[in-house]
Amino acid sequence: MTPDLVGRRPTLDAAALVDQLVPPPHFATATFETYIPDPDYPSQAAALEAVRTFAIRATRRGIPGLRSSTAGKGLYLDGGFGVGKTHLLAAAAAAVGDRAVFGTFVEYTHLVGALGFVRARDELAQFALVCIDEFELDDPGDTLLMARLMRELTDAGAAIAATSNTLPDSLGEGRFAAEDFRREIQAVAGLFTVVTIDGPDYRHRGDVESPVPASSAQVEAVAGDPDGVVVGWSELVDDLWHVHPSRYGAYVEGVRALGLQEVTPLDDQARALRVVALVDRLYDRDVRIIASGAPLDHVFPEDMLRGGYRKKYFRALSRLTSMAAPR
Predict the structure, then answer these.
(1) pLDDT digit string (tens) for 234-259?
(2) Residue 12: CA count within 13 A, CB half-sphere
(3) Residue pair 159/74 in contact by the 8 Å Cβ criterion
(4) How far is CA 170 from CA 72, 177, 291, in A?
(5) What PANTHER family would the database entry show (predicted)?
(6) Where are the domains of the chain?
(7) Phi, psi at residue 148, to the nearest 5°?
(8) Model-level pTM?
(9) Residues 46-99: pLDDT tens digits?
(10) Top-level CATH class of 31-200?
């Protein structure tokens, strides 16, 4: 059995951080050919062609006689959760190959923290395409940091592709005093051509519902899996407070099945956002979840689902349902 989660304190080697910026296991084989647009939503086929064209143009960077003298450009995939934005972003990275980097928003902010702004910018500027998944501005520091980083990367000629559930000129709304940083937010928005993708959550096509909670014995049985871990829900939520979200990928490394004992609704938004970050990393790794206690679709209470972070919470609920569905 994989060692317990609680108490893990992973460390990341700063020198290896750039090498780790690749699509996660869940999207490691994503290509344009494996993206299946829903015929009822023409925006999906249009987005596929837009991203494919963008990736082709990005590959021209650095080829003698083909590189344009103009600055790099940005493409921003906007849409609800489960419409294939991350799949298309990973497919773009695959098409460009080793001249592309792929990471979540928090991974890039951590890269800057670990390497310093100038070195991180210089490392990323060597790539033709910088892919930023789950783009969001949750605090003023991130707003200033990412606005400057992306501006300097595009000035250096890098192309940037990003995904988000929020249009670029609405970033930060409902989370902090976004009006005080409107100039930086508008600068970020000005870097991108926006492509909107419509459609239902593909994970829930066929009306998949949150599964009935498992029994305590069913959860404990996960401990018998070769890569299974069983942990108390409250114990896990408390432990997340001691691990930076940028390390959650390393925190769950090697886990393929996770048993959660006595799930209860969350009552603290700061802890809820850490759970969202953990769910994203578990989903990236195709972890199977078996949980007792409250149903997983009750983890985030109604007041959170109506607040400024509601899109994050709904994405997490969608992914939790997918991971907990019978296989």
Answers:
(1) 999 999 999 988 889 889 999 999 99
(2) 23
(3) yes
(4) 23, 12, 35
(5) AFG1-LIKE ATPASE, ATPASE N2B
(6) 31-200, 205-324
(7) -70, -45
(8) 0.81
(9) 999 999 999 998 887 655 444 443 446 889 898 887 889 999 999 999 999 999
(10) alpha beta
